[in-house]
């Protein structure tokens, strides 16, 4: 068995079990009690600051100030900055699913559904002039090597992502579908990086027009 994923009702990573490169042992931390509006503001603040400055250059006080929350109150909601980064990643994934996840379940061929799905994400990147990139890729480069909990959260999210993309396909073996889904994620993250460098949508257009059809065509081959 190569692994399976358990999500909660909102599509958040709960736990991933099994063996293989996509499988991790991870349990989402139980949120501390508190005012949900304050928690929402803290997460929104962290998301914006991590995009703009990264995790290491952002302090707890700056996060709290932007959210209009006393610094001491931050620790009522999160036991550490590291736990907060994990929570921000979870919120990022939830928002991504809310924006575009349903497109994977819509009508059309696998290529068309994937093109619509990634176009919505590309539209969001374009609204920010391609400067923000993908938080998953950003934090994988900045924090994954120094934080075990962030690394495990990233692995869990990517595992769920891979399984959701693989579910679009109707041909090929389960293993082949997951392999191609993994290639799609890897190609997409490369397009995100190039778009940040060139500040243009062209890498996304090439990904949609050339890369996606080529990769989807591999599903039915051995």
UniProtKB/TrEMBL annotation:
Statement: the UniProt record of this protein carries the keyword Transcription regulation: yes
Location of the DNA-binding region in this protein: 59-78
SUPFAM superfamilies, per the entry: Homeodomain-like (SSF46689), Tetracyclin repressor-like, C-terminal domain (SSF48498)
UniProt keyword list: DNA-binding, Transcription, Transcription regulation
HTH tetR-type domain location: 36-96
Chain ranges passing through the membrane: none
Gene3D superfamilies, sorted: Tetracycline Repressor, domain 2
Single GO term (MF): DNA binding
Full protein name: HTH tetR-type domain-containing protein
Organism: Mycobacterium persicum
Species classification: Bacteria, Bacillati, Actinomycetota, Actinomycetes, Mycobacteriales
């Amino acid at each position: 068995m190569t692994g399976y994923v358990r999500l909660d009702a909102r599509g958040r990573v709960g736990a991933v079990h099994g063996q293989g490169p996509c499988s991790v042992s991870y349990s989402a931390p139980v949120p501390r009690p508190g005012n949900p509006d304050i928690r929402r503001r803290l997460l929104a603040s962290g998301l914006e600051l991590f995009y703009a400055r990264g995790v290491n250059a952002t302090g707890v006080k700056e996060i709290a100030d932007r959210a209009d929350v006393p610094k001491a109150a931050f620790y009522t909601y999160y036991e550490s900055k590291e736990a907060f980064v994990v929570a921000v990643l979870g919120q990022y994934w939830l928002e991504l699913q809310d924006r575009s996840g349903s497109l994977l379940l819509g009508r059309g061929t696998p290529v068309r559904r994937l093109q619509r799905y990634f176009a919505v994400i590309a539209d969001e990147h374009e609204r920010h002039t391609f400067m923000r990139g993908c938080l998953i890729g950003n934090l994988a480069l900045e924090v994954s090597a120094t934080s075990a909990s962030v690394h495990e959260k990233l692995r869990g999210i990517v595992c769920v992502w891979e399984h959701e993309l693989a579910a679009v396909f109707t041909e090929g073996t389960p293993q082949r579908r997951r392999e191609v889904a993994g290639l799609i994620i890897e190609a997409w993250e490369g397009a995100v990086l190039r778009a940040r460098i060139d500040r243009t949508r062209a890498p996304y257009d090439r990904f949609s027009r050339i890369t996606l059809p080529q990769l989807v065509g591999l599903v039915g081959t051995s």
